[in-house]
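In this supplementary section we document a worked example of the pipeline. Step one takes a protein sequence of length 83 as its only input; no multiple sequence alignment statistics are reported here. Step two produces a three-dimensional model, which step three serialises into structure tokens for compact storage. The input and output of this example are shown verbatim.
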Amino acid sequence: MNLLSLLLQVAPIIPAIERGLVGTLVYSAIGIIMCVVGFKIVDWLIPGHMARQIAEEKNMAVALVASAMILGICIIIAAAIAS
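The serialised model returned by step three reads:
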């Protein structure tokens, strides 16, 4: 089997891979943006500023709550995108 015949067999697969790659990148960007927006909404709703507590005051309890919240939002977004 020569290289040309191998490329002709693989060629129909390339557009499907490109569509899948573009879709993955788009959904990833949407998911990341939604996660950041969700974090900002929760930060806005609770008293105090989570980002400042984590960055400036090194509050580990707030960091754990924020990480659990972000993980929960990401699971919800992944389930919504997958369905």
